[in-house]
What we know:
The protein is α+β, with helices and mostly antiparallel strands. Helices cover about 35% and strands about 40% of the residues. It is built from five helices and ten strands; from the N terminus they run αββαββββαβαβββα. Strand 4 and strand 5 (about 65-75) form a beta hairpin. It starts with a helix and ends with a helix. The model is unreliable at about 1-20 (pLDDT under 50).
Amino acid sequence: MKKLFSLLIALVICATTYAQSEHLTFKGVPIDGSLREYIASMKKAGFTLINTEEDIATLQGDFAGYKNCKITVTTIKPMDLVNTINVAFPERDEWSELEEDYNLLKSMLQHKYGTPADCMEKFDMTSSYLDNSMKLTLLLMDKCTWYTTFYTPNGDIKLSIEYKAPEYFVQLSYYDRLNSNAVMQQAIDDL
């Protein structure tokens, strides 16, 4: 009887928590609201605004134990509704450093969200031996796919190794399900 009662209490707590936060969160802040509102929340969380352009804002700050991360907040243009957060971790010059960052963050995400829904870590190359410099070259040439995705009830989280000239970095992306669905519904309504 005690076990059943404990289980019921745990379910009520989970249901209450889920009902209170239907949006995916970033740094404890729901990914929701206008760009201006979200920037204000991120400033309160310790981030510094770098730039704002139409439907995108770039901030900088510390995240998950890393200094000077670049945070990109994206809204759904016609609605001014925040739906995506991208974190670019510090630039790295060596594949081994990128892979170390990626593996550490992947481990932390698995600890928090459980088993990934999807994971692809491969080079488009037949050679069995690839040194650090060749691995970076393959990333630059878009012949490297390195990502892990976690699905949550509130949205998706994707960890990846990226190259955007001239930088190599690990990126963590948060996609809010509720706001993305709102945009999809608006597009469907347009048809």
